[in-house]
Amino acid sequence: MNLxxxxxxxxxxxxxxxxxxxxxxxxxxxxxAIIGPSGTGKSTLLRCLxxxxxxxAGSVKFNDKTFNLTTKNKKEKLELRQHTEMVFQQFNLFKxxxxxxxxxxxxxxxxxxxxxxxxKKALEEIEKVGMSDRLYHYPKHLSGGQQQRVxxxxxxxxxxxxxxxxxPTSALDPELVNEVLLTIKRVAKEGNTILLVTHxxxxxxxxxxxxxxxxxxxxxxxxxxxxxxxxxxxERLKTFLSNINMLESADNYII
Amino acid sequence: xxxxxxGVLVFKQIPYLLKYLPTTxxxxxxxxxxxxxxxxxIAVIRINKVxxxxxxxxxxxxxxxxxxxxxxLYITYFGIPIALKYxxxxxxxxxxxxxIPGIVFAMVALGLNQAAFDSETIRSAIQSVDKGQIEAAxxxxxxxxxxxxxxxxxxxxxxxLLPLGNSLIALFKGTSLAFTCSxxxxxxxxxxxxxxxxxxxxxxxxxxxxxxxxxFVLERILVLIEKKTSIPAxxxxxxx
Lengths: 255, 240
Prior knowledge:
The structure holds two protein chains of two kinds.
Chain A: E1 2-13, E2 16-27, E3 31-35, H1 42-49, E4 57-62, E5 65-68, H2 74-81, E6 84-87, H3 99-109, H4 115-128, H5 144-157, E7 162-166, H6 174-189, E8 194-197, H7 201-207, E9 210-215, E10 218-223, H8 225-230, H9 235-254
Parallel strand pairs in A: 3-8, 3-9, 6-7, 7-8
Antiparallel strand pairs in A: 1-2, 1-4, 4-5, 9-10
Helix pairs in contact in A: 3-4, 3-5, 4-5, 5-6
Chain B: H1 7-12, H2 14-18, H3 21-48, H4 53-66, H5 69-91, H6 102-128, H7 131-140, H8 144-174, H9 186-197, H10 200-229
């Protein structure tokens, strides 16, 4: 059974159509990676699901409950947002709170869980991302990779049905990318359902069990990593992949 | 030669003038509260561009910043009684303007003046909080009020603290104009005693000392608050 069913999602910025009537089903435990050229609405697709962007049309179904994504009802918006959690490119940790408080924030404020219980849950999640020795560090004391790991703990503490990851490693120094990728891999192995936008193609190959190629607001290809990377049938996908490869070979060429 | 400057008197009359310090502080405090709360209200209106209220706020801020505070005090002091007389005339009521003490007019005028300046400080401080954190808080499912209270305001306060401190000090000294509303605070008291002894210069020296000392204390308090609200430079280690 599908955990998430997205129907008819459309979004325009001015006259520029970013998402064009997108349908997408995600099964429980699936790790779905969205790839595609820049400006094709990959991030926008994620941001429409928690209403950080207002789409023109579309609905999303979680389990048995359908939400209209154009709703103006505040209560409904808050409810929808609790089905998903997001990990951002720029981490977006609360700068006025230390790591532990960052993870506890949603538990106490949104879920109204008593402080002691929230602390326990937060400590568990922080332990899992390997940040237990930095509970009282503020974001400014942490490296980018460490901040992103705390951000992942913060998202997972709220037990989202669908975890949205918007280019989680794009803002990191190359040296720090790996620790975050390993964390994501572990999160994926634990059975979390993830919708991930990334440019780390090798990582996608190893962690995703389904890849979507988005172009000009439409899903152009949808398949397993093997189908996408090894036997691409779509012409545009082929060009995209060869462009990436060309970049890699160009690097080699310069050296 | 006659004694042109009585240095002893400068200090001798300070205890007498200090009797009027509570009025000055009370006036400062109430105007501060009015200024901060209306200032925050205007800042939120302007950030969210609430129709009608936004335009009114822009007009209000422009008017308050564009006219001298002493003119505002006079307008309040003379304007409200006139308005009340009209009100009484048209509604057949009989409200007595003399029942309202002068200090209330001074509080209102100084408070509104503060609100205009504070609203701009608060607005820029709120807008300096990075949008990403607000998005993160929203995506968790926090309500707009929760985001403001838990994420935006605590960070905005750190940014706004120094300019608001400046404005508080200006307000404290601005209360010296409250005599226009027939309020006797330390400046007015100094003028009154000097009127008897003709030692005006000494009286102004005395209150200069009082203002300076109090401002010095205010500055210290602000530094303490700043230390308290800022994020520690070094992280606290987790005890094993």
